[in-house]
Specification:
Elements lengths: L17 H19 L7 H21 L5 H6 L1 H25 L1 H4 L7
């Protein structure tokens, strides 16, 4: 359902380094797993909600690294949420622009209108 983007160069002026390539390959692996969950028992909205929850859960785990106590983590909660929300907002905006610019490529409409 979701188009992969390995080796894409969204700005056409950024060198695709091994780190950037690995970033996209990890993202594609997660997208493939999400796509594999689609079926009679789960539509895209349900899979998307699970994926969003998983990202939030994993991000909470990552954010907790380096804290000695839960209270210290809780004190930083608002800043952590703002950081991740800002990152998500930017990535979502970039991907929506990409989908809009490549709509016919990504969205395959049935030919029997």
């Amino acid at each position: 359902m979701t188009e992969q983007n390995t080796n894409q160069n969204p700005d056409n002026d950024i060198e695709i380094t091994p780190d950037i390539k690995a970033f996209y390959e990890r993202a594609d692996a997660i997208i493939n797993l999400a796509n594999a969950q689609l079926g009679e028992d789960a539509h895209s909205g349900q899979v998307g909600a699970s994926l969003l929850y998983a990202a939030a859960r994993f991000s909470a785990s990552v954010a907790s690294i380096g804290f000695a106590k839960g209270d210290d983590l809780l004190k930083e909660k608002d800043d952590i949420v703002e950081f991740y929300a800002k990152q998500y907002r930017q990535m979502l905006g970039d991907n929506l622009e990409d989908y809009a610019q490549n709509f016919d490529k990504y969205i395959q409409m049935p030919s029997n209108k």
